[in-house]
Structure formats: C-alpha cells, structure tokens
Amino acid sequence: MLLDLYRTTLTALRYRWLAYELLIRDLKLRYRGTALGFVWALLNPLLFMAIYTLVFSIYLRIKIPNYPLYLLCGMIPFNWFAMSVQAAVTSIPDGRMYVGKTLFPTELLILTPVLVNGVNFLISLALIVVFALAMGVHLGWSLVLIPVVIIGQFLLVTGIAMILATFNVFFRDLQQLVTYATSALFFITPIFYTREMVPERFSFFITWNPLAALVQMYQSVFYRGTMPSFRELGFVYIAGIIALALAATWFQRYREFFGEYV
Amino acid sequence: MNTSNGAPAVLVESISKTFRIPNIPKQATVKDLVLRRTRREGSTGIVEALREVSFSLPHGGVLGIIGSNGSGKTTLLRIIAGVCHPDGGRLAVQGSVAPILSIGAGFHPDLTGRENAKVGLLTLGLTPREVKEFMGPVLEFSEIEEFVDLPVRTYSAGMMFRLAFSIAVCVDPDVLLLDEVLSVGDERYSRKCLERIDGFKRSGKTIVLTTHNLEFVESWCTAALWLNEGRVAAQGDPAAVVEAYRTLTPTAV
C-alpha cells in the first residue's frame, strides 16, 4: 500500500515536465479564443454568488451577515473538488490513445484535471481575498496556514479522483453517479448555511464529511478572520492520505487491465 | 550512450504472462454490480499469452519476432517496453527504450502533429530544453511538412507512422521497439527508414521488431525468434528460423 503510494508519487515526479506541458495545454485550451481569458474563472463563482444571495438570503431569509463572502468561501473550494472529480472520472477512457500502448503514465491523465482546476481555484481565491478585504475581515497570521489547507485539499481531491477514475474504467456508469453524488454533497456541505443551522440528529453529515471540514477552514480564515480548526485540518489530511493510499493501491493493482477496457 | 559492460542489450529469461481478465464484462455498470450480474458464466477469463520465453540480444542486434496472429508477439514487445508486467521471469534492458506499439498510439487526434510530437518527446523522458532541440530534426525526418500544424486526425496511417518513427529514432534510444509498423510507409519512405535502421545497427543500437514480412527478417535481422502459442518454437539464425516457420506453418504467407 505504502509502496504503491511511493511508486505513484515517483512516477508523477519523474514526468513533471510532461505534467507541466499537459497543464499548460489544458489551460490554453480552456481560455484560448475567449476575449476575457482567465476572467472566466471568476465569472462562474460571481454568477452563482449573486443567484444564491438572491434566493437564500433575500427570498428564504437565511440570516448570515456578509452572505456573498460566506458563499464564496464555501463554493470556490468545493468547485475545485467537484470539477476535478467530474473531469477525472472519465480521464482514462478519454486518454485511450495513450493507455497500455505507450510509456505515457496514466497517472498524469488523472492528475491533469486536478491541477487545471487547482489553477482555476487559485485564481478565484483572489476573489475571496478581495471580498474579505472589502468586508473588513481581519486577515492575519491565519493566512499562513492557507497553503497547508490547500495541500491537504490537493491530497484529498487527487485521492478521490484517482479512485473514481480507476473504477470507472470497469463500471462506466460511475461517471453519472459521480455527477449526482457531487450535487448531493454540495447540499449536505455547509456552503449556503452554517453548521449551527444543522439539527443535532443530522450533525453526522458535518462530522463525517471531509468537505465540510475543508470549507469550514476557508470560512474561518477568510470569513471570520480566525485560525482554522486543527481538528478539521487533521481530518482533511487523514482523509486525504487514506484516499490517496487506497487510490494508489487499486490503481497499481488494476492498471494492467486498463488497456483491455478503454 | 553505449552501456556495454558485457551484458546483452536485451535479456529475457523465462518470461511468462497470463492475462487474468477480471470477471467483469466490458460495458459493465455499477447497477450490474449492485444487482450481482457481473459474473460471466462459463468464462474463466484466463489467457496464457507467453510461456517461459527466453532470449538474449547483444548490442547492435536486430531481432525479428515472427509468428501467427495471437502468438504473443505484441505482448512480448509490450513487456520489453515496460507497459506490461510479466508474471514471472527476468527482464533486463540496457539503456533507454523507445517503442512504437501501434499506429496512432500516443497521438491525440485533436492535437497537431507538432503538439503530439512534444508530448511524445516528453513521454520519452526529455526535458523541455531537449524537446526544443529535437523538434526540428523530428519534424524534418517525418516529412509531414504542411501537415505539421494540422490535427493528427487529418493524417493518413502512413503520416502517423512517419511522425511516430521520427520521434522514436531522433531521440537516439538504445533500444528501439517496432510492432508491425514498418510496412505502413510508402516504398521511398520505407527505404529511408531502413537506412536509418542500418545506421542504428552500425552504431551499436538494438532493435526488436515484430513482422509478418519474412523476407525482411531474412535480409535485415541479425536474429529471429518464432513464437507459437506463447512459446518459443525456434530462434537463432534468421534464415533457419524463417525456413522452419515456412515449412511448419503451411498457412504462412
């Protein structure tokens, strides 16, 4: 298991230039020919921020001060997860011209969507900072921990993406299930409501949901201006490392069959 | 870089490969899994592709692997390339490897020839600086000219082969692997490839290829290996192996 994890990491590092090329290529493809370029990365969260504010804050009267900022702190990290996983789940059959026929490392097919959406995430993080400053949130030393949170999220997202991509080779309707599951996760994660609003008997949706821990850390730093909880940080790292270790184990075990099934 | 410390360029010792195809039909779904319908009746899903295959090829050798379809030629080449792992036995390859395992493999249809060449070169382990340096010679040798900046889906099989062959030979690998691809180019370009292969041979580089062209094996290879149902039926002198193959396989062309 640890050996598989080591082997997978080593491959990713050995092919870093190829990974970099694939990342740049995908970013170019995404923003090529669009007059606004990477501004598109900001428009999506802004649009949904406006709609959710209208619906939840004005229509449904959810009482959370600085609601637009609160929404961004949850939505933007959640989108990195959701968009990466949805793109990664089909990445092995999408890359069938490489799998099993060339020395091209299949790991990179899965890693690329995670990295591309990670860059997107970093760009939109600037949006959160601008909103936090505009709303007068005190951004202090807790900012130093944001890179640590981001690395934890990267481990978690990569692990889940790799597990789903591996099994989707054999069970192709997994990609549909992933679409439903990410929508469901969006609603059970405290993004447009706070965890205090969740009734006690449903609190396990928060306690056992690593994405809830994740978005609450961003909310602590950028919305409340406090340190992220170390319990949440620990939870995300443990979940991330377990996901990645399982991912590497299954990926290495089943990779030799990828060629036959893509 | 010639790493000849007495060891052969390619050493294969009693390599076996059995494909245990998981008991999952293609097009399986999670729904089937939940309803327990994935078990395929009557199918064990076991294919013995290679059984105790051994050979050793010195530096500068050109090995031609022959045998009917399904005899394990491609599997053997994939194992030497490192894209497939043997169940048992030992494999030792000296130096860098560049494989061409099928036409169009490694090319993304929507990317241009140039972009695909870049990815191909990076896959072979080059740094971005080296890619820049090698790109000119690769595109020149491939002679795809005005198609360089068009998507690969507009290419003919011959053009794809030319680009793949150029990528593989221009990085000057120690071992070149070719799976039934030499017959794709036209007469003139094939001659150009053969000249390059000859140059390869003379500079001590090693080639392992599979082919159905027995004349090619007789005239260009330094050794031949005949695979029959995953076992080595004969190996050694190309003329002798081809002769044995011709007499014992009446259906052979």
Estimate nothing, just give the exact number of structural domains of chain A. 1
| Rg for CA atoms of chain B | 20 Å
Shape of chain B: globular
* CATH class categorisation of chain B: Alpha Beta
Ends of chain B: how far apart? 39 Å
Low-pLDDT stretches of chain B are none
Write the layout of secondary structure elements.
The complex is a heterodimer of chains A (262) and B (253).
Chain A: H1 2-14, H2 16-31, H3 40-59, H4 67-88, H5 91-94, H6 106-134, H7 146-168, H8 174-188, H9 204-207, H10 210-224, H11 230-261
Chain B: E1 10-20, H1 30-34, E2 46-57, E3 62-66, H2 73-81, E4 88-93, E5 97-100, H3 113-123, H4 128-142, H5 157-170, E6 175-179, H6 187-202, E7 206-210, H7 214-220, E8 223-228, E9 231-236, H8 238-248
Parallel strand pairs in B: 3-7, 3-8, 5-6, 6-7
Antiparallel strand pairs in B: 1-2, 1-4, 8-9
Q: What key phrases describe this protein's structure?
A:
heterodimer, A: 262 residues, mainly alpha, 11 helices, B: 253 residues, alpha/beta, Rossmann fold, six-stranded mixed β-sheet, three-stranded antiparallel β-sheet, 8 helices
